[in-house]
Prior knowledge:
By secondary structure, this protein is of the alpha+beta class. 46% of the residues lie in helices and 13% in strands. The radius of gyration is 26 Å and the shape is globular.
Amino acid sequence: MSDEEGSLCCCEYINHHGEKTHILASCCDCEDLDEACDRCLKGKSISSQSIERVSATFSDRLRIPWLLGTGAKKIDITILPPLVFLPIFLHIAALHFFLALTILTSLPILVIWYYYVTHQKKGRTLFFLSLGLFSLGYMYYLFLTEIMPRGTISSVQVILLTTSLVLTLVSVAQTKKDPGYLRTDNRNTPIKDAQKNSISSCTTNGKCEIQPVGWDASTTLNHSTLNGKIQMGQNEFQKDWCKVCKILRPPRSGHCRICANCVQRLDHHCIWINNCVGQGNHRAFILTLFLFLLTSLYGISLTLSTICRGQSIFMALFYCPGVYKEHSTALSFTCAWYCAIVTAGMGYLFLIQLINISYNITERETRFALRDKTGDKYLCGLIIKTDEYNRGLLNNWKEFLRLQPHPRKPGIEDLV
């Protein structure tokens, strides 16, 4: 860290131009914003480059003071929409049944639309993580303020719900850890840990060679970054070489374009935790889904049993007389429906994960199997079976439960 950066006070920061500035100066020097507003008032079109510059400037200046000597911290703008709009939408939905029907139908559509927009750009976003965590916290807050005062909830039930919520958050923190990244220095180490006694070199045309010491020329590994293939003598290997990270990776590993890293036994990149799910955190991910479903279902049951007395939990979701007479009960009922929709989505994801584990196949491998038509589909595509790694139900679950949380270093022997 430079002396300039090290001397930053809590409200100072280094902007994206490399200049020291202050939070109080956030509204100064807004030429791009002034130009965009001027063109808008004159009825002229605003170029996409101008919008991108305004967005970059705004996101760079959105900061909070920090007291650890590193200056003001940047706030990811994608965190804010759930914090602002979710309470507003839920309170509006509690005003009338048709408003609730409209909003609770539109919210999943908007979330799915935003997912596809961000997925196409292959960018990281904290929107979904913020939505998930804030939904948990806000539902718990409403439970304490709207349901608890009614006097039908015992202290034991509150303790159970609170414990389940805390365990869910702890499990989320575990899934945020290293999923099994296979890191390398792309500039200086074309092949990661290929062999201690080896000679590696790259030419200007993108061709890399590895010659382990003591091997003859026929065993040289040749890699061309143009086609992503590796050749060992007369044999050619495709799937174990990453032309982006420049590493030899173990079987079932994959490259995540969002995280820009190879991950050992990559399952998928989960938007809800803003992290990959791989060998290092797959078990924690399954535990998180289970605890979330348990917490959500228990909270829904306590809420509906309080505001819709004398009815079964399932029937109360569809028929709860007089629930819109008071805003408090209407808000609680709306939140119960919101939780039920989220729980249904997470339950589907949990079911898919359980099926994939039972057949010893990752989500990434199912996509490849469908694309290459190498797998069999059952139950309208709910089950994808390839038998490439399938060892039977019991052995598949044993293998999954024995996954090591720390990735091993791939070697040259992974190619054979």
